[in-house]
Write a structure and sequence with these properties.
single chain; 269 residues; 12 helices
Length: 269
């Protein structure tokens, strides 16, 4: 299904953290929208059975006839699963709760860790001329997350600015290391982005200091603030950049997109 002779395709980034409620889906949606606003062509792959990224981009449940489930397990044509969104340059492969059974079905497949990798590298992907593919991983280190890491060039980790934030990161790092050793030697950590940051709160400052002390340059300079507009936007089925373009949350995601693209430029130099 995949073609090793294809030229260099889009940059594939898995957005992962096995802890729930850290801003993973919010970061996927809003970073994708910010990259698209900057002119990049972006595809979001909703790999979370909750389907929150799909809902947050306005894809109604009734409109999800073909999803990541069919993409991975049934090798369906890309044109049947990729949907456009209200945001120019931003498309999505949606998810439904059907994906929750994928782990059990993948176990018996000898290529179980490589199915998403192959699906995202099929020749038909060239027709979309994508710059970035962002994979919204489920909040667990299961076979779906492993599929995302095998498919990805890098992993971006949202880190909530709360007590015990760094706990659990060690397990994620071990999983990344294991995937690198066994299936994807080129996988690297794109960076750690602090989410729900409150500069008036000493705890947020302490979490940031701990993160930078432990992870150094892996921590993005951009911090995503705790912002009511960011929290409200999903209920209107749109990214915060569309919901309130001038909000602090929208500007933070623009800054993150710029920092990410600058990192890509430096890495390519």
């Amino acid at each position: 299904m995949s073609d090793p002779t294809r030229p260099h395709g889009p940059k594939i980034i898995a957005i992962a953290n096995q802890k729930g409620g850290v801003g993973k889906t919010t970061t996927t949606i809003n970073l994708g929208a910010a990259l698209a606003e900057a002119g990049a062509k972006v595809l979001i792959v909703d790999l979370d059975p909750q389907g929150n990224a799909s809902t947050g981009l306005g894809i109604e449940a009734d409109d999800r006839e073909f999803t990541t489930y069919e993409l991975i397990l049934e090798e369906i044509e890309l044109g049947r699963v990729i949907q456009t969104t209200a945001n120019e340059n931003l498309s999505i492969i949606p998810a439904t709760v059907d994906l929750s059974s994928a782990d059990m079905e993948l176990i018996s497949n000898e290529k179980r860790s490589f199915l998403l990798h192959d699906a995202l590298r099929q020749p038909a992907m060239d027709d979309y001329d994508l710059d970035f593919i962002l994979i919204d991983c489920p909040p667990s280190l299961n076979l779906l997350t492993v599929n995302a890491m095998v498919a990805a060039h890098s992993v971006l980790v949202p880190l909530q600015s709360e007590f015990f934030a760094l706990e659990g990161l060690s397990q994620l790092m071990l999983t990344i290391r294991e995937v690198r050793q066994t299936a994807n030697p080129e996988l690297r950590i794109e960076g750690v982005v602090l989410t729900m940051y409150d500069g008036r709160n000493n705890l947020s400052s302490q979490v940031e200091q701990d993160a930078r002390d432990n992870l150094g340059e892996l921590v993005f300079q951009t911090r995503i603030p705790r912002n009511v507009r960011v929290s409200e936007a999903p209920s209107f089925a749109m990214p915060v950049i569309s919901y309130d373009s001038t909000s602090k949350g929208a500007q933070a995601y623009r800054d993150l997109a710029i920092e990410l693209m600058q990192n890509q430029s430096r890495a390519a130099a």
